Task: structure prediction
Amino acid sequence: MAREILSEECCISVGRTRFTVNRTTWPLSIICFEDNTRWGYFDPKFFQIGLNARLAGQVSDAVLHDLLRHELAHYLVRVFHGEATTPHGTEYKAICQRYGWSEEVQAASGDLPSIQKVGDLKADAVIEKVKKLLALASSSNPHESELATLKANQLILRHHLDRSRLQDKRELCVVTVMSAPKKNALMTAIYEILTHFLVKPILFYGRAEVRLEAAGTRERIELAQYVAGFLQVELERLWKQQGLKGLRARNSFYTGVARGYSEKLASTRNDLTPEESRALVTIEKSLATDLKFFMGGLSQSYSGQVLDSSAHERGKAQGRNLNIRPAVNSAAGKIFQLR
Result:
């Protein structure tokens, strides 16, 4: 629909994934997202249009066309005028008038249904149980702490093994868990830790901003969002306790925390049965295949830093003792449903 609008109504040359204006090509990227407050948006940092997933099957094609025109108008303001002074100001109205788009396009209302929150009760119950186990992992009793951590990770794994056997249709979702002006050691550490929660971390680069996202099934990314929100606060708190100074030491410390935590959780796989181990490999391959199909490639997190060995070892020690506790508000973003 977007290609049709740009080509036939705007007389703009459009390819499969990009369109051309004045010899400059622009990405045509459209995603479906979930939100309880808005139906669509244009993100000028990542040149991306989002449409609420709940529109599917609930509105007519005419309304969907108008919503696309509305968000494309925001995009074309960026193309022709740069940053807009106001979201629906003079430049925006000029674009709509230029292509003969009605006031309904500018308002993007029509027969839109009300937004209602939809949840997965079974997934929510599992997430709450995992949070309680992670809370027990904070126990001062070393045996109780390790046992709670083990049980939490086994529950995550076995729940998703069961779900993968029952579900014929996989729903792939992505959530933004962290953003920064550029990739940093804290983001890279959280990236590594999230790999142990059966999600695929993704680095998404935009203009003067990098997002760390987590992809997987709905309940996995909800848990990943919770974990990432905790880690952003806890890792910075642990660093301040060290009494060390310097960017190199801080980066080395964060890298060590991720390494120590990874070593701690790697032991959980040793307690899986052969059948569960094979199923886990299947889940990981399936996720990689889905992501490659829907997103066209993945960004990996690499670090070429020279480590401060002392800070790194301190970080590893903290990582081996790291416990993810509840009652931390996450600053993560919205869920983007891809399938």
Summary: The domain at 2-107 is CATH 3.30.2010.10 (Zincin-like). Residues 117-121, 163-169, 327-339 have pLDDT under 50 and may be disordered. The chain has two domains: 2-107, 121-337. The first strand starts at residue 13 and ends at 14.
